[in-house]
Every structure is written in structure tokens, then in C-alpha cells.
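Archive entry. Fields below.
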Amino acid sequence: MVIDRRYSCLEAFSMKSSLWIVLGCLLFSVAGCGSTAAQEQGFPHYQVDPSWPKELPNNWIMGHATGLFVDKQDHIWLVHRVRTLLPDEIGASLDPPRSECCVPAPSVLEFDTEGNLLKTWGQQGYVPEWPNGEHGIYVETGGSIWIAGNNQPSQQPGALLPDRQVLKFSADGKLLLEIGHRTDAPINNQDTTMLGAASDMFVDEAAHEVYIADGYMNRRIVVYDSNTGAFKRGWGAYGIPLSEIDNGPRLDYNPAGPPPKQFGALGYPVRAGVVIDVDISNDGLVYVSDRGGNRVQVFTKEGKFVKEFRIHPKTLGQYGSAWSTAFCCDAKERFLYIGDGENSVIHVLNRDDGTELGEIGNRGRQIGMFDGLEHVAMDSKGNLYTGDVTPGRRFQKFVPVR
Amino acid sequence: MIGLCCCFSAACTRTDEARSDGRPQVPTVIRMRVDFSGDRIDELSYNVDVSWPKVLPNKWMLANATGLAIDKDDHVWVLNRPRQLALDDAGSAVSPPQGPYGDCCFPAPSLVQFDAEGNVLKSWGGPNHVPDWPILEQGLFIDGEGNFWIGGDFHGNANNLTAPIEKPDEKRWDRQVLKFSPDGKKLLAIGHPSNVPANNQDTTILGGPSAMFVDDAAHEVYIADGYLNRRVVVYDSNTAAFKRGWGANGVPLSQISNGKASDKQFRGALVSIDISRDGFVYVGDREGNRVQVFTKEGKFVKEFLIHPKTLGLG
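PREDICTED_STRUCTURE:
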């Protein structure tokens, strides 16, 4: 499934689980299909593995794919937003049952690389502050699990409280820590006792620090002690201190103008400019995905701004181009993969200077395509995992073809 | 849609055995348990072919799939509803200044033809193809001469028409079936767009017709009618002259209620109609959780209740 020029090589590759097509296209690419053939650049072609994950037991079905993490044992952790399941998808769980299919899966599912389901846990009400809209997952080496939530304020009568908290659980699912709490207090980027519909975490295990992408309401990165929950530091776009982050209405993204001074510019129609993802590379740089701002900003762990990569800055739409990051494919992490749910591809960048080297995939509803691509993650063998939020609502695995 | 299956011979080979063409086995197997006249076969299974169809050209996206037909060359025709494509799926078609959203995508034409390998061969149709093109395409049949029959089921809610295509007149409900030549020229219309109330006695207008079947030898088109009406109606497939019609259990059109639904009527939506080789008419009554079987003259033969505890959409 891959790359170079989207509508030359890719057309033949894209859904292609069949080896002979891939081989055929490799020959084609050597014969001059695109000037930046993936393999010359050193990042792999991929083919979808339609057997991953295996069919869920217990008549389970998953909603929006809102969290994806590969732990040190190459176990793949998925989080889905249970409340996004539609009545005709969970007919068997209704009273009276509407149909024979299906029942919401638990919020968190752990798979191995073969697609076997190893463990599940968590659900609405699992603990009193369980997020109303599950979003983001990080699993530490010792097995502790971090979950965030992005339910946002709503004027609808009976609306659920916004998620302003991140939760840490032990490996056996016991609540260890809560950072923030559920509240309908106004947005406040200066208040570090609560979050703003956080969307992702990364734990620096050596330093015992958790980095939080915060989030759907706020416009900042905040860092806490991962054992005590004590606030350590935080910053906004370009590394500005929390005190300089604007709590007012967000500005529309202007593709003709300079990049926004704050995180979280709005797309059109009004929605979803979000600090959505945070990852730390092996060489200790913090990568922050600013979705509506169509960019990834890079910081030191102390929050000093290093550089930014603008990702297809003409992108408009409800969301934007920079949804999630992953590093590939060696210890030096030469390549930066960026999941782009608006353009429905994974951009492959030279991690050092941000040069775009190629693209993986394209939009569609068939197996191996992306439709609302939110997450990208790699395991230690170089397999690529993806999660589609909406309308795709699925997780997929791609294996490298060398 | 009802599929009338299957092969009863050695051609009915198991599909989960290793393929001989060297393509890797796709372990995604859908098992099927069938009992053919007491000769139990419970190993028949299907493998999903993940390479079909291929990536669409021209950055096209397909929306809700509402029609599927195989032509005489075993090419697959897909009917879809471009107007229901999600805004982000059609981001390239959004006009400035709000768009284009990015590098993806455009609504595909309403009809797309694929070969067995998943290549797009032909495509046509869409909101401006003819003035009475359905707002929400529903149901596709290709007759023995290669003509296309297309129904529609828009009845007034434009809120779920999300694609960046000009919004239609909300009063222009789909009450028509259209017949096109193999090259897409309109040959015939049965009924016309209108928002007059449902009337199962009026055969000059349909009610959200959703499936068609053409009896080529008799030059007759059978219409499952539909989302608003509760009847099967049959017209001359060349002249569109009305021939006959009936309701659930074969009641005459005059006895079909235009008011509240009951078990004695089709509950609707009537979403499928097929005729078997031995000449029986199979009608899918979706919310009724049943298939009713008739002679071609409309005499009720039998009904099969399909998981009758099913609620929801049936």
C-alpha cells in the first residue's frame, strides 16, 4: 500500500494485499514511477493485513477509534469512544433488543501483533470520573495505563460534563491518579488544576513525567509528575508561557497568512482546532500535533521551541492536516509519519528538516484505505497501525514490504 | 436486495482452500451454513477479496451504496447517493473561501462499473444528468437489453444531504422510476417528482420506489413501491402503461390503506423485488421482517418470516 505519487504507483498499490501486485508495482516504481520512490528514500512500502484484528468475541463492536498505543512488548492498545456507537450498531444491547447485533465493546482493548484479543477493561462508569468521551491512551513499561477524555461543553439540555481530567490506572485497572477533574468551568489555560478536554499523553518514564496534549478546549502542553500528579511546567505554541495563552475565541485558520501564534486555530465550519497529539523521540524532542494549525511543533522537554513543520498548510475543512505522529524506522528515527485525517494520507517527512518524502495511502472505505484517519503507531518490527475516528471507525494493521 | 443463490454442482468449490495463483490467503473467511434439499453442506465459505475494488480514479468517493447489479458480462454496477457524501469525504469539491478542504475528494458519479479485478470501466449519472434524476438514488436493475432502471426515495428531509452539491427543492420527492439506454439516454419515466401524499390507488405516481425487476420475455417491469407506498406495481417496460398491482398477501390496490401500518399491509419499506427462474416474485418487506412470495399475476403463495423479533429497520 504506498506511496510516491498518489495516483501513479499508489493507485496500483493502495489496497493491495496481494503480493503479486505489490511486486509488480515495485518493478514499476523502479522503472520510473515517481522521482522519490519510497525505497530509495529508505522507508518501506506497506500492505494491509486484513486479518488484524481478529473478529471480536461476545458480539462486540467498537465506535470512534480515539486512542492507539503500542507498548514495549508490542501489544497494541486501542481505545474507542463508546458513546459514539449508533443504535443500529448496538441493537442487541437495547431493551428490548432491536436486533442480534451488537454490543458495545469495553473501552480499552489489548491485542497482540497477530490480532488476538488479550485483555479488555473499562467502560462508562468504571470509575466515577471515567471520561464521557474516551480519547488517547498511553501504557507504561510497568503496565500503568493513562486515559484522557475529550467530551466538550454543550448547550444541549442534559449534556454530560466536559472531560477536564486525565486518569492513571494500575495494570490491573485500579485508579492510581487523577489530574484535573470533570467540571463545566470556563476555559482557563493558566489553571493547572484542571485540563481542557485533553486528547493524548506521553510518559517520560525515566523522568517520571507525563506530557499532556491539552487539548480540545485548551491550547497548551502541560507536564506533571507521573507518580504524584504535581504540576511541573507547561507552554503554548512557540513555547510561550502559560500566562500568554489566550483564553478567548479562537481565530479562523488563514491559509494565506503566517502560521497562527497560538495552538488550536479553527477550521470550517467552526469545530475542532485541537492540540491533539504529543510524542517524544528517542533523542528527547517533543512533537506536538496542532491539527487546525496544519503543523507539528517541536520542543525540548523544557518547552523551548525548536522548529515547526507546516503540513499541507492550504488544508481547510473541519479539522486540519496534523493529527498524530509516529517515528520510523530505525533507532535514529529518520522518518516522521504524520496521520492526516483531512487529506486522508500519512505524510512521510524527513524528521530532521521536515522535507516531505512521500505519502502512504488514500481515502476510501475499503480495507487498507483511510476515512477519518486519526492515529498512527509503529511496533518494534516496523508494522504500522492506524485508527480511523469518523466516518471510518476502525483500526488497521499494515506490514512493511521490503 | 435478495440474492438467489447458489450453485448445486462441483462448481460449488470450497473457497477457503489455498489459491492456485500464488496470491496470499486472506484469512478473513465468512462461513455459510446451508442445507440443500437434505444434502447437508456446511463447509461452504467465502473469502473476502481485499483487492476489490481498486482505489477509485479522479479522487472519487462513493457514498451510501443503494443499488448493486451484475450485467451480462459479469461486470458489477454500483449505484450510490452522491448527495449523502459526508462533507469531509468531498472536501475537494467545497467552494472557496471555505474550501477546497485539501487534497481529497470528489463525489463519484451515481453509477460506477467495475470488472472482476476491481478496475473502474465506466461511470455515469448524477444530480444533473436529467431534470428528474432522483435526489436519493435507490435501486438498480439492468435488463436483458442492457437498459438501466433506477428508483429513488427522497421524501423531504434535506438535512442529511451533506455533500457540497446544490441543495434540492425539498418538495421534489422521488416518486419516479427512470429507464435509461445502455449509453445513459433517458428512455422512459414512470411517475414523476412530487410531494403529494402517499396514494396506493394512484398508478400515475410512485411512492419512493426502491427496487425493480424486468421480466424481459413479457416486457414488464415489477416495482417494489416502496418507502411511502405499500405495493408491488407492474408496468409495460417499453410503454410504461400500467398493467397490475397488489399489496401484502395479494390484496388489490383498492384495499391498501394509505394511513397507519398494520400486519395485514406491507410495513415497508419495500426494498427488494426479484423473480426466480420458476417464475415466483419475491418481495422484501423490511420492517415487516418477511419475504412474501407471489405468482407473476399477484396471487399470494407464501411468506417467510425472517428473524421476526428484529426491531429497528427490520
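CURATOR_NOTE: Residues 3 and 228 of chain B are 24 Å apart (CA to CA).
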